[in-house]
Design a protein that fits this description.
The structure is a homodimer of 578-residue chains. Chain A contains 27 helices and nine strands. Chain A is mainly α. In chain A, the strands form two sheets. In chain A, strands 3, 4, 5, 6, 7, 8 and 9 form a seven-stranded mixed beta sheet that branches. Chain A has a two-stranded antiparallel sheet with strand order 1-2. In chain A, helix 5 packs antiparallel against helix 15 and helix 6 packs antiparallel against helix 14. The longest helix of chain A has 32 residues. The two termini of chain A are 51 Å apart. The interface between A and B is large, with 65 and 66 residues.
């Protein structure tokens, strides 16, 4: 059982059926057809040689297939991780080995994920709020599109280009490259919107039409490559092509660089791991819910970590679960991770046999594939919804997006994360509290602002706070309580009704000690009532409880009122309670 | 009234009495005696010429006296702000004008505070939790002591010293300087611990003895200066002295540097402002509570901001309310800010008349004064209490302290702040929720885990969540709800009882939409019950409410149960509700 939990493959392999196989065979093939051009495209996007993406599409999906809890997640190179790698590599000295650095990023990302998984910290995904993720993804997609435009236009940007050079550079665009790129874009767009309908009108079955329309990226690549070959576009017309790839499978090895490089790349690797993890789990959950399957967030950390480590071993780039490929896999009928293993085998076959052909793929087609894939990530609707629903959430989304666009991917993401945390604490900083009074003739207590004719006493104040006490609200609460005191010159006893308090952090504890002393200096005794068990266990050993006498801790508000409503000499009454 | 609120001086000046004057005269004088050597010492600590601290002790207390809501807060140069200035200046090019940069820091800090005050963002003080503040202060005090040791030992550290040089540098200590410094430390220590008792035993009144013991810093300075003069310690024995100060009062002017410098110093200035503000308000509140006075956190932002701007105008350094000086002021009987105005006048007199004498003050004595003052800030007890009370709070405190010691004051503080925010969200990430059932024959519902014999139904699940829904807990809640569903194969209706939900942020809203769709795909309808008014107002216009039908929103849990407990065909029953 424990083994099956840590190796989910054992679970689904045990009950594997013929029907599973049929679904997986079709889905695995279609996903592979989509993956090969995407893998090369994402390599180029990351500023790496094209084989990096192919290598990252072989071992990682197999590692995930063994360890992952999602049956349909398609793991491999993804666009957002690719652009994050590109920006991380941009900070390296110009003569660095970029592929080695990418391998290191994958290794570090994998280690980070595995460590978090072993520590069972899957809930860390909490820290990425929806507005931050949405703003980040949209802005990253725009950055990616901008990064691909030169390839689409056939412009070779020099490394040290200046904004002033831009008009001249754009004017020098390559018409042949643009024609191929625009043609590929048109093909992809038609395949996504009208092709299925046309094929079905032509008598094809719905399933076959849907599968056929998924081959559009491959078609675009083949058509582009054929065009290059027929018209000598690369040698005569200067259309950039992928260029020669090393034949065969990657050698499995791992050269470790020095500590300085490791430490320098660690923050980038952690962010890549974090974003990839959150995106992957989010997709995996959505699809698992549809089939009433469960995703284990901690096991996912380990599985995605292992996928990244295996990407590093095979000389690739960081990987994650890709949204569009996973949807294609799922919709093509994938039932288990056997589909992913088949995909990996097909990619390996391509890497073994077809590298000479891949060398002639025009970059403009790959740029078109990327632009088409990421343009769906631009999500203005969510931004509008968030803004309309909640100004703070909308502002967080907008700030993250603007941060990514102006300060860079990583800085923008971190700024968004910190801002969302600040916003969270800010929201919690004015907790609800109520002065309560007794419903006549009962043991019930209600907010005096909402109910009339409640019993209250000038020397006794009952205050109920409906939020756990923490540093986020100590400043406000102390101020609010002292204001209540200042308005009641005859006050002798204040009872803090703790029925809504689920926790008291150290800052709040210190505030309560200070409050007790301040109130005592003003001749008022602080009491507690209805303290929850776990909270009381914590408080028992603290300074507060040693300072609180002559104040007391009552089991119920009613008990507090009975003990305090008539007495004006708290010290004399200490023994009357239990 | 409004004028009196923005200028609190008008309030206390109106009711000023003879008794107030007596208290303020004594307190103002004693505070001035303490302030003059401290002001010079903090200047040197900040790496500034000694007059910077004196200048920052004249206008700023007056500005605060006019605008501040604390009657007894003593505003001026403080040790923590001084070391923060030192570290901010350390990042400047070596040939920069350090005094000009310090003036700029004060100006920016002042502007930041005033802007926050005008925006009424006093609650921002929330963001600095007690563990972060405590860890920061302790570590900063240790950094300050380390920074003062060379002056105490009479060692002139070259700017580019290396750790390897340390033994040689320490071996070259100046015995005369060390003797003076150690003597000053002994005097300060005796004054703080035994002097008062000795004086009272000698027949002095308690009040006089207490006041006399406060003159120790001045005594140390006078004794040290006399020793320098008598034994020619500066010229013959190489004891470092303060050196010549410009005579007279500062010229009021303000040279503004370029934007780049401004932007570069802004983060440091904001941190200095933030820490100074939180410390000042904390002291001010403690003392105000003792006399049942109130502090207005927003007005304090304006007052401390104005104090910093006036420090900049007079060519000084950033200021805040100092803990030790404020306590001395309060205990010496200060009743109003008239005491601060008197202190400022006395410092101005010193700056006018006594600068030739101040030039001979040995630096070792000033180092002793600083070391003695900040050694009280080292607070191991709070660290132990925090660790014992709550491991997370303890870890935050420790990380902040270690961060300040190893990464520097600013980075350490920011790391602590971010960690405390992460810890806060982490704590909120597993909210309490309960499956509830009906107490037989009533309309009351209780947690099925705590009460036995409750009515439940296999096709109907009642779930109550006791926390506002936000990005901090969506991951956990979605997982937890789906687990409840997976355990109930006959489930048809899930009712989310929202009586404990005070808010739903955008991330949680998206989660609810996704949950609704997932449940519907699994044949389950999601309903809401007891949604609070403000939450409902928000939700009404959202996608959730358009997706929720055929799910319904019930006013009470009872109503939900009555509508759903017998029906197994939710769609057919839609019209039966109201």
């Amino acid at each position: 059982m424990a083994l099956r939990r840590s190796i989910p493959l054992l679970e689904w392999a045990r009950t594997y059926t013929r029907a599973d196989l049929n679904g997986d065979l079709l889905a695995g093939t279609i996903t592979a057809i989509m993956l090969v051009p995407q893998a090369m495209a994402f390599s180029l996007l990351a500023g790496l040689p094209p084989q990096a993406g192919l290598y990252a599409s072989i071992l990682p999906p197999v590692a995930y297939a063994v360890l992952g809890t999602s049956r349909t997640l398609a793991v491999g190179p993804v666009s957002v991780a690719a652009i994050m790698v590109a920006q991380a590599l941009a900070s390296l000295p110009p003569d660095s080995d970029r592929l080695a650095a990418s391998v290191l990023l994958a290794l570090l990302a994998g280690i980070v994920l595995i460590v978090l998984g072993v520590l069972r910290l899957g809930l860390l995904a909490n820290f990425l709020s929806h507005p931050v993720l949405s703003g980040f993804t949209t802005a990253a997609a725009l950055v990616i599109v901008a990064a691909q435009l030169p390839s689409l236009l056939g412009i070779a940007l020099p490394r040290d280009w200046q904004p002033d050079d831009l008009p001249a550079l754009v004017a020098a665009f390559n018409p042949a490259a643009l024609a191929i790129g625009a043609g590929a874009l048109a093909l992809l767009w038609f395949a996504a919107t009208g092709l299925e309908r046309v094929l079905r009108a032509g008598g094809m079955s719905a399933a076959a039409a849907s599968s056929a329309s998924k081959t559009a990226p491959l078609l675009a690549v083949v058509a582009g490559t054929v065009a290059v070959g027929v018209f000598d576009l690369d040698t005569v017309h200067g259309v950039q092509v992928v260029g020669s790839l090393p034949a065969g499978l990657p050698e499995l090895d791992l050269d470790l660089p020095g500590w300085t490089t490791l430490i320098g790349l660690l923050p980038s690797a952690a962010l890549i791991a974090f974003v990839g993890y959150v995106e992957s789990v989010s997709i995996a959950k959505t699809l698992a819910n549809r089939r009433r399957q469960m995703i284990d967030p901690n096991q996912e950390l380990v599985a995605l970590g292992a996928a990244n480590v295996s990407a590093a071993i095979s000389g690739g780039m960081p990987v994650a679960g890709g949204f569009s490929r996973t949807m294609v896999n799922f919709n093509a009928g994938a039932r288990t991770q056997a589909a992913s293993i088949l995909t990996a085998a097909l990619v390996a076959l391509v890497a073994l046999l077809f590298t000479p052909l891949l060398a002639h793929v025009p970059k403009a087609v790959l740029a078109a594939i990327i632009i088409f894939a990421v343009s769906r990530l631009v999500d203005v609707r969510t931004a509008l919804l968030a803004w309309r629903y909640d100004r703070i959430d909308g502002a967080v989304l907008l700030t993250t997006a603007l941060g990514v666009l102006t300060l860079g991917i990583e800085t923008g993401l971190v700024a968004g994360l910190v801002l969302s945390l600040l916003a969270y604490v800010w929201r919690a900083s004015r907790p609800h509290f109520a002065v309560i009074g007794r419903v006549r003739g009962t043991e019930h207590f209600r907010n005096v602002l909402r109910y009339s004719n409640l019993e209250t006493w000038p020397h006794l104040l009952l205050l109920r706070v409906d939020e756990h006490l923490s540093f986020a609200n100590t400043v406000y609460l102390e101020q609010a309580l002292m204001q209540q005191v200042a308005a009641r010159p005859k006050l002798e006893h204040m009872v803090l009704v703790c029925s809504g308090i689920n926790g008291v952090d150290f800052s709040a504890l210190e505030m309560l000690v200070k409050l007790t002393l301040s109130l005592r200096a003003a001749g008022i005794t602080l009491h507690l009532a209805e303290v929850k068990g776990p909270v009381m266990d914590r408080l028992r050993e603290t300074e507060l409880m040693h300072r609180l006498p002559p104040g007391r801790v009552f089991l119920s508000t009613h008990e507090a009122v009975e003990a305090l409503r008539s007495t004006r000499h708290p010290r004399g009454s200490r023994d009357s309670g239990k």
